Amino acid sequence: MDTSTDSRHETSRQAGEPVVSLRDITRRFGSVLAVDGVSFDVHRGEVVGFLGPNAAGKTTTMRILTCFITADEGTATVAGYDVVEDPIEVRRRVGYLPESAPLYTDLGVLEHLRFVAELRGIPPRDVKRAVDRMVDACGLEPVAQRIVGELSKGYRQRVGLANTMIHDPDVLVLDEPTTGLDPSQIIEIRELVRRIGREKTVILSTHILPEVEAVSSRVLIINAGRIVATGTPGDLARMTAGRGAVRVSMLAPEREALAALSALPCAQDVERVAKEPGGYVVYSVSGSDSDSLAEAVYDLSRARNWRLRELSRKTPSLEDVFLDVTSGRGRA
Amino acid sequence: MRPTAVIARKEFRSHVSSPAGYVFLTAFLVLTGWLFFRTFFLVGQASLRPFFSLMPWVFLFFVPAAAMRMWAEERKLGTDEILLTLPVRDGEVVMGKFLAGLAFLALAVGLTLPLPLTVAALGDPDPGPIIGGYAGLLLLAAAYLSISLFASSLSENQIVAFVVGTTMSFALLVMGEDFVLVAVPRGLAPVLRYLGLGQHFRSTARGVIDSRDIVYYLSVIGFFLYLNLKAVEARKWR
């Protein structure tokens, strides 16, 4: 497999043995179809963002991949090992951080890491080194002597991550690693994930869009148990190309302005957003292409002699794609 | 170290290092000590028979109390999701928890050893029944423990685990007693008599360690550990 760390964006399209492979995974809970025929491959060195609204099937998929539960149908393999036939081999290669990072609250931080390291089968003489390495990597020195139950949410999350990575796994599966953290902690965790992602394969679920854009080399959007879109964050943003919007703050009689903006050839929808001090009114104009929209609005304001205080293009974001594919209706 | 041993050590340590563990041991020793000395001087016999005969009832509450946490809390905290996604077999986890619980109960039982020592100091008891009685006590504790661990694996609520564990242990204890047997169909009576825990405990409490009793205890323990394993595995399909 030739995948250099610099060409992560390309690896997803390269042939070669995928590290993680899911085929037609289906899982029901009673009559509820939680995951419905999900298939995807992840290659070495990819950071895959698993994006979806709550209850879309992200956690269920991850639990199947880490052998916590089994699928009703379909197969999943990690490094060539089947999750049903060789669960122990799969688990050896995977580091899994469950949602909200559950931990044994009665253990000390070091004790907890040692416990996991020992169960990971790290030889006794190497356990201390592995624990020290994780304390260092996850910034746990200040709390190393504390009991897990006394720690703040941010530190718990870091202890959880340290547990997940202590055996230097090939594949990291992180279920919403940044929920409940403050912004600076979120940035730290993302930085950590990005660093790991240079050598390892990371699958990370979230419902926070900027997170996916920040760390992922590829995005899978899942909704109601199905994968509804996949590609690099850029690819997905381009899916909304041909649709754009501008925001304009203009000093003009409101009714006239609304009529004139609606009459622009490239405008599809005009919305009055807010009134600003000094008689200015903010409108949002959407249409086929934000560049030509912006030019048309500028020309209009010149022609009518309406003063502008703001004119900005809204570039289509992952958010638009997400809302498109998860709601099933276009936003324009 | 083997995963079973790692889990057993961690579970044992969280038993003895928690306030609940000390409360448990203290309450257990105070109660057993009181039950022992209440009749000891009145009867005036250098024997532990009355003490042993009460233990199935004392354990009925203490063993489920010691075990109720062991699975229920994993579920409640969600830590089962870390534990059962580590490269460890479900059976190793079940066994590790059982051994830790057994070690803790053995510690509790061991701390009652001053009672036989007192008896030995004041009189001249026959050591056979005492040794046999203690062996029977450990087997009894192990049987209740396997039942209570299974009960704990059924719920994430410790109170539910406790009540279910006590109820199931009680059912097993009285199953073979006469007042139950008169109420069941004739054909069933001998089966229940064998399955009831009471008579097996009485024979060990007399100091008779019979291989049939040992087989019985090991079967009960194996059966409930198997159910425990199945309950843990059931998470995968539920």
Outline the fold blueprint.
The complex is a heterodimer of chains A (332) and B (238).
Chain A lengths: L7 H4 L8 E10 L2 E11 L4 E5 L6 H8 L7 E6 L2 E2 L4 H7 E4 L11 H11 L4 H14 L15 H13 L5 E5 L7 H15 L3 E6 L2 H7 L2 E6 L2 E6 L1 H6 L5 E8 L2 H10 L3 E9 L4 E8 L2 H15 L2 E8 L3 H10 L5
Parallel strand pairs in A: 3-8, 3-9, 6-7, 7-8
Antiparallel strand pairs in A: 1-2, 1-4, 4-5, 9-10, 11-13, 11-14, 12-13
Chain B lengths: L2 H14 L2 H25 L5 H29 L2 H4 L6 H21 L3 H9 L4 H27 L4 H17 L3 H4 L7 H7 L1 H9 L5 H23 L5
Helix pairs in contact in B: 1-5, 2-3, 3-5, 3-7, 3-8, 3-11, 5-7, 5-12, 7-8, 7-11, 7-12
Please provide the ordered H/E string of secondary-structure elements of chain B: HHHHHHHHHHHH
Percentage beta strand of chain B:
under 5%
Structural class of chain B: mainly alpha
**Averaged pLDDT of chain A, please?**
85
Oligomeric grouping of the chains: heterodimer
Major sheet summary line of chain A? 6 strands, mixed
CATH superfamily of the largest domain in chain A: P-loop containing nucleotide triphosphate hydrolases
Question: How are the strands ordered across the major sheet of chain A?
Answer: 6-7-8-3-9-10
Per the principal axes of the C-alpha atoms, what is the gross shape of chain A? elongated
- What's the total helix number of chain B? 12
